[in-house]
Amino acid sequence: MTRVQVAIVGAGFAGLAAAMALRSVGIDDLVILERAESIGGTWRDNTYPGVACDVPSHLYGFAAHPNPGFSHVFARGGEIRAYLERVADAEGIRPLLQTPMLDASWDAATETWGIRTGGALPGTITADALVLACGRLTEPLIPDIPGLQSFPGPIFHSARWDHDVDLAGARVGVVGTGASAIQLVPELARTAAVTLFQRTPAWIVPREDRDYSAGERARFAADPQRLGRLRADLYAEGEARFASRSGDANAAAAARDIALAHLRAQVADPRLRAALTPDYAFGCKRVLLSDAFYPALASGAVRLEASALVAVDGRTLTAGSGRTHAVDALVLATGFQSTRQPYAELVHGENGSLATHWAAGMTSFGSTVVAGFPNLFVLDGPNASLGHNSSVLMMEAQAGYTARVLAARTGVLRVDPAAEAAYTAEIDEAAASTPWLSGGCRNWYVDERSGRLTLLWPGTVDAFRERLARTSGSEFLPTTVTKGAR
């Protein structure tokens, strides 16, 4: 049995952010559990053709670890994974790899977390505090389609890409038109005959990606202040996008006009253009960035099936329209289990599992701590995602809050249920009039069980930072209050 002050689960952006923040306040007695063979999280798991970030490179990283060497305005997936590995090396962070958390239970007698592990290092870890940095888009969502499991050819999810399958010259069906699909479809279409099943079209705006020249990268390396100014500019641009995503009428209309102009400029066929035009409010679903998706469809290299896949019979795929399509391979770009986090089944607090506590949708205080789960912190969990700026900024804010509270604690930290209820009410009130709830679409931000917005933070990053900064410890029950953490 191993005893530590803090156990962190997950070695992606959130896990590294937590480790760095805790060390910055003198908490070095910690362990990081990682179920995979390497660090990287999303950027380890997603290796599909064309995978890249939708946030500018120099904003999608840790503030303390700028990377002047990013090759493009929007970093490729492999670059981001390599960046995370370099950060871990620079910080001396050594996760326990291939060591999944099988169960985590609060022990009332010892007031500690007992964490059962498997894989390479099976056993039990006892920790005073537990930080869940498991990610929110980790488990692929496989649609319940009749006959899907009987498909005789290669079939895999975009986040579990099978690089042993050669798709050149093949007839490939792609299910979904979300963020992953619009990146991989143009790449697949270079060598394969692609049929794309679109349940709902997306709002797509220009990406305007480009290479950073060798000269630019050299100047970034030589002048950190130049890179700092660029990061500040990118941050301000991201914060400004919140208005169009959250329902400001004028900002949304302007952004919608940009998206429609982009579509008109790249798709001449009026029928195809109509099929690709959303009928819901701008911002209701994730707004996508691409300069290659529309041209791939307009070129004829991709056949658009403007309805969902509803049945599979051998190699024959039937769409909601009634049309059938024969394919040799099938790629599911169908998203993830977002509102029902898989790790929640494994975590047991004072009154049951985290999954039970979240049975009507995820709730928390500060998007980080949860009533009934003492000394537990969840990064990138309830209402901690963004639709307008870099999610790394949110993780860093949560990690800072976690470190501040743990450094100041004098006993067990039990969240006051009233504080969680009040914070949840704040979220609900702020979200009520946004397109995410009222924009006429179905999205992965909203829990279908309660109809609540449970993934997105309905505000700016500035507002989230300010919300966490003004906590005083009153979110915890008086009997276990901190020393006035701030």
TrEMBL record:
Keywords: Oxidoreductase
Pfam families in UniProt: Pyr_redox_3
Gene3D superfamilies the record matches: FAD/NAD(P)-binding domain (3.50.50.60)
InterPro entries the record matches: FAD-bind_Monooxygenase_sf, FAD/NAD-bd_sf, Flavin_mOase
Protein name: NAD(P)/FAD-dependent oxidoreductase
Organism of provenance: Microbacterium kribbense
Lineage per the UniProt record: Bacteria, Bacillati, Actinomycetota, Actinomycetes, Micrococcales
